[in-house]
Write a structure and sequence with these properties.
By secondary structure, this protein is an alpha/beta fold. The protein folds into 3 domains: 116 residues, D-Maltodextrin-Binding Protein, domain 2, CATH 3.40.190; 83 residues, Periplasmic binding protein-like II (D-Maltodextrin-Binding Protein, domain 2, 3-Layer(aba) Sandwich); 73 residues, Porphobilinogen deaminase, C-terminal domain (Double Stranded RNA Binding Domain, 2-Layer Sandwich). The protein has a 5-stranded mixed sheet, sandwiched between helices. It has a 5-stranded mixed sheet with strand order 7-6-8-5-9, sandwiched between helices. A 3-stranded antiparallel sheet has the order 11-12-13. Helix 8 runs parallel beside helix 9. The radius of gyration is 20 Å and the shape is globular. It starts with a strand and ends with a helix.
């Protein structure tokens, strides 16, 4: 194999991720030339509606998967949090890169910290997970939808359309976009539990290509793969789509795995939480275990009601 083609979205962050993987492969396999097949996904084109209303996270991955299935790419690089738990036949999620900082970050041109926001301050986010957790702490804040690529979101903040916005820290760090924002505050994971897969990259490949599988596996981080499998198993078992406020996080602590999961309403009410600690060697069943515990508490009913509540204003506009 002389050339390997990576399918990637054409957004700035997706290209950073693809070039990172390209560089790592070329270091490990100097005889292989890596090329990028750049695609503008449907999720990148439709910027005026919440993700939940355009069919969910699959719109960031489908076109890349189609390119692989058509023989136009050997591999795709995704933000793992954008990868649905269903992988099309003929493809597989072969490797997960080492996870970086999973924090969400508070950004403002007016207020130094989340705690200093005044009553009725306008906070921008499209994430139902973030809405749920922010409202649980500060029910007095006004949540306003926030769409567009990262630069668009930061421009809207600078223009004063929002008092503050909350985004994933890692994307801003990778693109070196934090330096121009006056007030930046990482929010603690105890306050803002991440979504499945945050701050890790998923490498999807054509299953039948053994050489590409070998290359992908050279980039796999075992602990991250274990933790993100637990998170993805949980989301799949509980049946949570992007219309549902759900957070889940697994981490390795010594020889154990610590898992935290949460579901609730977007307005910060009816929150159900579950924690689990188990030996690392038992990781294969932990996602299902914590999902079952939450289901016994009524999580399925909560998620059904949460989906009805989500983006009611946006749904009304579509009718």
């Amino acid at each position: 194999m002389k050339t390997l083609t990576i399918a990637t979205r054409a957004s700035d962050l997706a290209l950073w991720q693809a070039y990172f993987v390209k560089d790592e492969i070329e270091k490990k396999f100097p005889d292989i030339k890596v090329e990028l097949n750049k695609i503008t996904s449907r999720g990148d084109k439709i910027l005026d509606k919440p993700l939940a209303l355009i069919g969910g996270k699959g719109h960031f991955t489908k076109e890349l998967e189609d390119e692989m299935l058509a023989g136009n790419a050997d591999m795709a690089v995704h933000s793992l949090k954008d990868v649905p738990t269903f992988i099309p036949e003929g493809l597989e999620l072969a490797a997960i890169t080492k996870r970086e900082d999973q924090s969400d970050v508070f950004l403002s041109h007016k207020y130094k910290s989340f705690e200093e926001l005044p009553k009725n301050a306008v906070v921008g986010t499209t994430s139902l997970r973030r809405r749920m957790q922010i409202k649980a702490v500060r029910s007095d804040l006004v949540m306003k939808d926030l769409r567009g690529n990262v630069n668009t979101r930061l421009r809207k903040l600078k223009e004063g359309q929002y008092d503050a916005i909350v985004l994933a820290y890692i994307g801003l760090k990778r693109l070196d976009l934090l330096k121009d924002i006056p007030y930046v505050q990482k929010l603690p994971l105890d306050m803002m539990t991440p979504p499945m897969g945050q701050a890790a990259l998923g490498i999807e490949i054509v299953s039948s290509n053994e050489k590409v599988k070998e290359i992908a596996l050279s980039l796999n981080d075992e602990d991250t793969a274990i933790c993100t499998k637990i998170e993805r198993d949980f989301v799949k078992e509980i049946g949570a789509g992007c219309s549902a406020p759900v957070s889940v996080n697994a981490r390795v602590k010594d020889d154990n795995i610590v898992v935290k999961a949460m579901v609730g309403f977007p307005d910060g009410t009816h929150i159900l939480k579950e924690y689990l600690t188990a030996p690392k060697k038992e990781y294969k069943s932990l996602g299902l275990q914590i999902a079952e515990r939450l289901k016994q508490k009524g999580a399925i009913e909560v998620l059904k009601e949460a989906e009805k509540m989500a983006f009611k204003d946006d749904r009304a506009e579509r009718l």
